[in-house]
Task: inverse folding
C-alpha cells in the first residue's frame, strides 16, 4: 500500500463516485416529491446510449451529456404519466422502466451500428487541466490532479450537492417542494400544485439520471455496451437511504461506494491469482451492509411511494 497506490485510489474514488452521485441526487429530488423511482438503472442505460450516440455522431462529449439528459427525461416521462396521472403503482412501473429502457437501448444500438465483434468508439470529455492548464506543472502533483485533472462533470456533480442542500433547507421553493413529499394534501391547501411539482420532480430525476448514464460513455469509457451501467442505479438508490435523504449524507454514501468500486479494480491488479469475481462483489456487499445497518428504520418523506389522488379526503 504505497503512497502512489493510495493517491490513485483517492483520485479513482472521486471519479467513480460521480455517476452514482448524479443518479442518487436524481432519486433524492424524486423522493422528496413523493416519487419512489427504482427505474434508475434503466434511465442511466438509455442516457448512456443517447450520450454516446450523439457524442459519436457530433464528436462533442458536451452535446452527448445534453442528449443523455434528454434521453433520461424522455423515458422517465413514461413513468411520470403512469404514476402521477394514472396513479399506478410506482414500484411496478419503476421495474418496468428497468426492463424496457435497456432493451430499447440495445435495440437502437444494433439498428444504428449493426452487429459486430468490435464496439464503436467516440470521443472522451477532456479534463480541466488538459483544457485550461495544458503546460502547468501543478497538474502532475496529487493536489493538482485532485482539483484540476477532472472532467467538468465531476465539478457539476459536487456543485449540485451544494445547490441541493441550499435549495431544500434555505429556500421557500425547496420547503414547498419537500412539503409535496411529506403532506401533499396539506400542500395543496396552501396553493401548491402537487401534480405539477411531481412532474417537475420527474423531469429533474430523468435529466440527472440520464446525465449520470452519459457520464459513463463520454467521460469514463468511450464506448457503449450492454451492462455498462452495472447496477449503479440500485447502488444510488441505496445511497439515498444510507444518506438519510440529505444531500451531504448522500454524497458521503456515494464516496463510500465509489471507494469500494475503485478498490476492487486495484485489488484485481495487485492480486491477479485471486478470482476477480470475489473483488467485484465488494461494492454490492457494501451496499447490502449499508442497507441492513441504516435502512431498517425508514426516515424518508412520509408520502413517498403513495399515489396522489386530488379528489380523496
Result:
Amino acid at each position: 500500500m504505497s503512497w502512489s497506490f493510495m493517491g490513485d485510489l483517492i483520485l479513482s474514488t472521486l471519479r467513480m463516485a460521480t455517476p452514482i452521485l448524479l443518479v442518487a441526487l436524481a432519486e433524492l429530488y424524486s423522493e422528496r416529491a413523493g416519487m419512489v423511482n427504482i427505474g434508475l438503472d434503466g434511465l442511466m442505460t438509455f442516457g448512456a446510449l443517447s450520450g454516446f450516440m450523439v457524442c459519436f455522431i457530433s464528436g462533442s462529449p458536451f452535446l452527448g451529456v445534453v442528449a443523455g439528459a434528454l434521453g433520461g427525461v424522455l423515458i422517465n416521462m413514461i413513468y411520470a404519466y403512469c404514476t402521477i396521472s394514472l396513479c399506478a403503482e410506482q414500484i411496478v412501473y419503476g421495474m418496468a422502466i428497468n426492463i424496457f429502457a435497456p432493451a430499447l437501448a440495445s435495440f437502437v444500438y444494433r439498428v444504428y451500428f449493426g452487429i459486430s465483434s468490435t464496439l464503436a468508439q467516440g470521443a472522451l470529455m477532456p479534463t480541466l487541466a488538459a483544457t485550461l492548464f495544458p503546460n502547468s506543472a501543478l497538474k502532475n502533483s496529487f493536489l493538482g490532479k485532485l482539483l484540476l485533472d477532472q472532467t467538468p462533470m465531476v465539478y457539476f456533480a459536487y456543485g449540485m450537492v451544494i445547490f441541493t442542500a441550499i435549495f431544500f433547507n434555505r429556500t421557500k421553493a425547496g420547503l414547498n417542494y419537500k412539503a409535496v413529499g411529506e403532506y401533499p394534501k396539506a400542500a395543496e391547501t396552501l396553493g401548491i400544485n402537487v401534480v405539477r411539482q411531481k412532474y417537475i420532480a420527474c423531469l429533474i430525476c430523468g435529466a440527472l439520471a440520464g446525465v449520470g448514464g452519459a457520464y459513463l460513455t463520454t467521460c469514463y469509457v468511450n464506448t457503449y455496451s450492454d451492462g455498462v451501467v452495472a447496477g449503479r442505479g440500485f447502488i444510488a438508490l441505496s445511497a439515498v437511504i444510507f444518506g438519510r435523504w440529505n444531500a451531504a449524507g448522500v454524497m458521503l454514501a456515494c464516496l463510500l461506494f465509489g471507494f469500494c468500486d475503485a478498490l476492487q479494480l486495484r485489488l484485481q491488479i495487485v492480486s491477479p491469482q485471486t478470482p476477480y469475481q470475489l473483488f467485484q462483489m465488494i461494492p454490492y456487499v457494501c451496499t447490502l451492509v449499508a442497507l441492513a445497518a441504516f435502512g431498517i428504520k425508514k426516515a424518508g418523506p412520509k408520502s413517498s411511494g403513495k399515489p396522489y389522488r386530488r379528489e380523496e379526503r
In short: The chain has one domain: 3-112+152-294. The chain has a mean pLDDT of 89.
